[in-house]
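Page 37, continued from 36.
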C-alpha cells in the first residue's frame, strides 16, 4: 500500500492561525464571530451586500470573503433552484453543528429505509449523509480520539454551505444552493490513518459520483498517486460524456511547495484550481505554481468557519479556505436559474471558462510564473441583474468606483 500525505495544505496552516486568534484575545465562545475581529480585513466594516441576511458574523462585517465573491447573489429561495451536491473529501465533519445539520445531502432511500439494511443496494449500509472510508462505517463525524480536535472537514463544509439566516455564525456562497456529502478519507491517528490511501480514495470517488455529487472539493493535496487513482480522476475530470463527470475543485498550496500536487496537478478540463487571495487582491506569498487551466482567485485569510465544541467557530487562513469557498460559490451559481439546467460540461465551458475566467476583475500580478499577469478573481457576478447586484459587480461597470473604494478602505489590513 502506498500512503500519500493529504495534510500539506491544511493542518500546519490551521495550527499557526489558532495562535493568532488566541493571541488576539478572541474569547473562546461561539459568540465571538459576532464581534468585530481585530484580524478582520474589513474592520471597521463596510455595509454588507445583503442587509436581509441575519447571520451574526455577516452582520458584524466579519465575512469579507463572502462579499468579495459576491456571495449575496447566490442567495435566493426561488423555486427554480436545483441544489448541487458537493462532496467534501476530508477528515469528516461535525454534522450536528448548528451550521451544518440542515445543509447535508441525505440519501433518501436510507432515510426512509430500515436501520442495518443497505436499502438502496449501493454497497453501503445506512449511508445517510456520506461514508467514513477510514473506518468503513456510516459515522462521518469525528469519533474516538479525534473528538475535540480541530476538524478540518467541519471548517471546510461550513465555508461551502453554512446555514444562512439561522441567526448565528456565518453564511457562505453555497448556503442556499449546495448540499454537503461528507466523505471521511483521512483520520487523526498519526501513522495509522492520517495518510491518504489511494485505494480508499478510489472508493470514495466512485461513491461520490454514483450518488450524485457534481462538485468534489479537495482542500488537500498529495504528491504520489496510483494508476487506479489516476484513472478515476481522468474519468471524472476529463473523459467526454462520462457518467461520472464532475467538477473537481482543487487547492494550490501556499506553503511554498515547488509544485501544486494532486489533484491540482492533473491537466484535466474539469479541474478548477483555487488560487489563495488576500483582500487586497494579492496572491498569497508562496503560492505553488499551478498548471495552465481554470485557475481562479478565492479568499484565503481571516476566514471564520465552523469548529468543534466548545468554541463552535474559529478563524483560519490558507488555501484550504480558498478551495472550499470556491466550491461553495460554484454550487451557488450552478444551482441558480438559468444555470441549474446545465450539464457539467456546459457549466464548465459556458460559465467557469467562458464567463468567470474572462472576468475583467483580476488579482494583482504575482511574484512568479504563472502568476505574472495575475489571475481572474472568482465571484458570482454572472448572476447580477438590474435588480440584484453586489459591490464587486458594480465595480466592474465602466463608471463604477465602489470596488476601488473598498480596496482603499481595506488595503494593508490582511493578517498574512
Ligand atoms: Ca446504502
Ligand atoms: Ca449561519
Amino acid at each position: 500500500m502506498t500512503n500519500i500525505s493529504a495534510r500539506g495544505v491544511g493542518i500546519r496552516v490551521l495550527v499557526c492561525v489558532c495562535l493568532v486568534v488566541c493571541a488576539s484575545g478572541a474569547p473562546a465562545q461561539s459568540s465571538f464571530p459576532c464581534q468585530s475581529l481585530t484580524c478582520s480585513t474589513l474592520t471597521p466594516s463596510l455595509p454588507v451586500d445583503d442587509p436581509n441576511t441575519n447571520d451574526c458574523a455577516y452582520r458584524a462585517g466579519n465575512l469579507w470573503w463572502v462579499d468579495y465573491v459576491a456571495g449575496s447573489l447566490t442567495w435566493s429561495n426561488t423555486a427554480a433552484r436545483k441544489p448541487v451536491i458537493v462532496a467534501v473529501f476530508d477528515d469528516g465533519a461535525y454534522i450536528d453543528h448548528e451550521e451544518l445539520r440542515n445543509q447535508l445531502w441525505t440519501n433518501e432511500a436510507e432515510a426512509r429505509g430500515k436501520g442495518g439494511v443497505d436499502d438502496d443496494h449501493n454497497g453501503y449500509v445506512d449511508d445517510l449523509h456520506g461514508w467514513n472510508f477510514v473506518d468503513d462505517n456510516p459515522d462521518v463525524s469525528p469519533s474516538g480520539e479525534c473528538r475535540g480536535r480541530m476538524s478540518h472537514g467541519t471548517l471546510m463544509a461550513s465555508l461551502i454551505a453554512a446555514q444562512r439566516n439561522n441567526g448565528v455564525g456565518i453564511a457562505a456562497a453555497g448556503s442556499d444552493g449546495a448540499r454537503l456529502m461528507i466523505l471521511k478519507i483521512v483520520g487523526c491517528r498519526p501513522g495509522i490513518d492520517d495518510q491518504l490511501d489511494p485505494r480508499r480514495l478510489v472508493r470514495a470517488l466512485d461513491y461520490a459520483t454514483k450518488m450524485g455529487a457534481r462538485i468534489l472539493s479537495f482542500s488537500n493535496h498529495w504528491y504520489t498517486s496510483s494508476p487506479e487513482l489516476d484513472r478515476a480522476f481522468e474519468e471524472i475530470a476529463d473523459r467526454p460524456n462520462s457518467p461520472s463527470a464532475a467538477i473537481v475543485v482543487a487547492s494550490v498550496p501556499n506553503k511554498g511547495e515547488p509544485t501544486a500536487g494532486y489533484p491540482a496537478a492533473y491537466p484535466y478540463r474539469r479541474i478548477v484550481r483555487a488560487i489563495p487571495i488576500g483582500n487586497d487582491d494579492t496572491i498569497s506569498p508562496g503560492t505553488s505554481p499551478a498548471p495552465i487551466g481554470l485557475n481562479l482567485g478565492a479568499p484565503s485569510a481571516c476566514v471564520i468557519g465552523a469548529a468543534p465544541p466548545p468554541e463552535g467557530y474559529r478563524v483560519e487562513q490558507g488555501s484550504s479556505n480558498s478551495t472550499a469557498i470556491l466550491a461553495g460559490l460554484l454550487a451557488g451559481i450552478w444551482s441558480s436559474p438559468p444555470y441549474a439546467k446545465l450539464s457539467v460540461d456546459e457549466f464548465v465551458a459556458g460559465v467557469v471558462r467562458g464567463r468567470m475566467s474572462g472576468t475583467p476583475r483580476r488579482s494583482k500580478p504575482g511574484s512568479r510564473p504563472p502568476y505574472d499577469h495575475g489571475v481572474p478573481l472568482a465571484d458570482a457576478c454572472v448572476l447580477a441583474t438590474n435588480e440584484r447586484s453586489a459591490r464587486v459587480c458594480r465595480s466592474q461597470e465602466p463608471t463604477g468606483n465602489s470596488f476601488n473604494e473598498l480596496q482603499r478602505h481595506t488595503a494593508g489590513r490582511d493578517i498574512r
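The domain at 7-409 is CATH 3.40.50.200 (Rossmann fold). Flag for discussion at group meeting. Residues 110, 118-120, 122, 124, 127 surround calcium ion (ligand 1) (CB under 6 Å).
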